[in-house]
Amino acid sequence: xxxxxxxxxxxxxxxxxxxxxxxxxxxxxxxxxxxxxxxxxxxxxxxxxxxxxxxxxxxxxxxxxxxxxxxxxxxxxxxxxxxxxxxxxxxxxxxxxxxxxxxxxxxxxxxxxxxxxxxxxxxxxxxxxxxxxxxxxxxxxxxxxxxxxxxxxxxxxxxxxxxxxxxxxxxxxxxxxxxxxxxxxxxxxxxxxxxxxxxxxxxxxxxxxxxxxxxxxxxxxxxxxxxxxxxxxxxxxxxxxxxxxxxxxxxxxxxxxxxxxxxxxxxxxxxxxxxxxxxxxxxxxxxxxxxxxxxxxxxxxxxxxxxxxxxxxxxxxxxxxxxxxxxxxxxxxxxxxxxxxxxxxxxxxxxxxxxxxxxxxxxxxxxxxxxxxxxxxxxxxxxxxxxxxxxxxxxxxxxxxxxxxxxxxxxxxxxxxxxxxxxxxxxxxxxxxxxxxxxxxxxxxxxxxxxxxxxxxxxxxxxxxxxxxxxxxxxxxxxxxxxxxxxxxxxxxxxxxxxxxxxxxxxxxxxxxxxxxxxxxxxxxxxxxxxxxxxxxxx
Length: 539
Fold this sequence. Notes:
The chain is α+β, with helices and mostly antiparallel strands. The protein folds into four domains: 27-123, no CATH class; 152-159 and 290-366 and 462-537, 2-Layer Sandwich (Nucleotidyltransferase, domain 5), CATH 3.30.420; 168-269, no CATH class; 373-451, no CATH class. The chain has helices at 3-9, 38-47, 52-56, 69-81, 87-96, 98-104, 112-122, 125-141, 169-193, 205-223, 237-262, 320-331, 347-355, 373-376, 435-438, 451-465, 467-490, 501-525, and strands at residues 149-158, 166-168, 267-269, 276-279, 290-301, 304-311, 337-340, 359-362, 386-388, 393-395, 401-411, 418-426, 446-449. Strand 10 and strand 11 form a beta hairpin.
């Protein structure tokens, strides 16, 4: 073993023996950062933001900042831009990467504990959203964003939760029904054997059990019951009923808590209550296994992410309205054109856009089907029947009238939206030669039609079929779906690191900030700052 190694064995400070190293100039880090590096743009753009809310998160008294919150914020955003998502990874980069060192401005590299506590405790969703939309406003001021066309898309990202700790709403309801029967038997036994009248109420099982336990505890205090346990000990009837009532009460409390967590959902994860079990496309087994995930909605214009939000909904239909309302709350303006795929189609969404003077470019669910010959030849489809608007009836393939037999209101149980549905019934399907092809009903054929939905769908269909509509649909595929492609493939972000809706939103906003700065850099370098639509891609 040579002497150098022996020296290092007895000292952990490797810089004590600089015999073989020569100090080289220049030492200024700025020399090593290219003039067109994205980190320079990031630093300049983020420096222009107003950090009043961030500084308000700190106490006015106490020690000075070890590192400025603005610098820490820059480090985290740049970390997300460079695919460093964990606090340890960012801390390591601050020690080894010259770009991170340059952002530090001569400060000592922060520990992973400092980065984590800053991101978790200081960067609240309110503060992050304020900074995110400040950047959006600056992009608007610089004409990078037009506020004309909003391209919306959604994707499912796996939650940071155990895949097998699921709770299902149907299962909880079945268990509640079984528990109700046991509670009924318990109260009967209490009345017969203990002469306790508890006044059981089926609509308030938890309250009834609370009252029963209260009366039993009073009986224990007055009569001084002695509870026994262990082998060879025989429990009294009172003790058995008391323990049963306590167990049922605890179970009912758990069911009540579960129902509150569901909040309109059919499932949730025990390790992340805000995550819902969904089908994910990236399942390598292709077996459609349900996994805890969030439905991430993104709004894009001019290739920039305008808004990004997580939702617990497995489908996109009920996410459009809260997504647009939130965007209006933050921007104070509404987009005149909304472009989305068939997953967002509903009468409620059409009505919402119409009421807010927003033009719908939503592709109908049956858009691809109506092009097929098999669909066009299906005589039982409403679209293939003649409609007499003046007299309000349909004519089937057998030249029989389907007349208006009344209307009713159909309510969406989740959103409470009311839709007026009209029922049309054939006068007589008896001895019809094409009945087997027309309907499976044993009686006369019936169809249910929402006239308002059909009218709004036709308007949207006409919008997407003209030249502008075709251009916008192509751009939605490029810009909105492309944004998710970049986040998943280029940024390798396919699973959240944190749990809970608030922390998940924090991750998404940091991703959105880094994405937009990267996009701004790319557009500047490629001289595309004045391009908002990819028109040359349209045939």
